[in-house]
Fold:
Amino acid sequence: MIFILQIKNKIKDRQVVNFLVSQFSLTQKDIGELMSGKTDTKINYQIFCRECPSEFKVELTFFIKEEVCLELEIFNSLIIALSFVDYFSRAVVINDESQDPYRWILVNEFKKIFVTDEVIYDDNGLFNEGLFIDYSTAKEITINSAMKVLPDRDYYLTKATDRPVFYNQDPTWG
Structure:
């Protein structure tokens, strides 16, 4: 499974490994950088830094085998985001799994959760290539409200061939 966190500042490989070891009781051997070629890992990760102006400059992607997701109880990006904020005290943005590509879930450095929109155009009416959050649209929600619209344990227990593509279809969302 793939889980993506959008973060504001650069992060080093060592910080990612230390985070995963600390928060998910893994060993360093369980973790690999995606391009390292390691195949015997439980979790691989990739750090991508945007070249364009962006509030959230870094995309941190985790690639986790399904059986590991069940073992570690990682069923969606919010679970990783909350642990990340606990460990680093940094804000994180994740996909809300809806069909709206400009809607996001923001977890601030105090672990408050918001549904928010992306700023699509800059002040000159030009399309933003980077990721900027429109804080004027932010609506605070509870962890339970967010978890209700994201994949859960039952989604992973469904046989992969019978599992539909997951979409947040809650009509009251956002």
User: Anything to note?
Assistant: The chain has a mean pLDDT of 92.
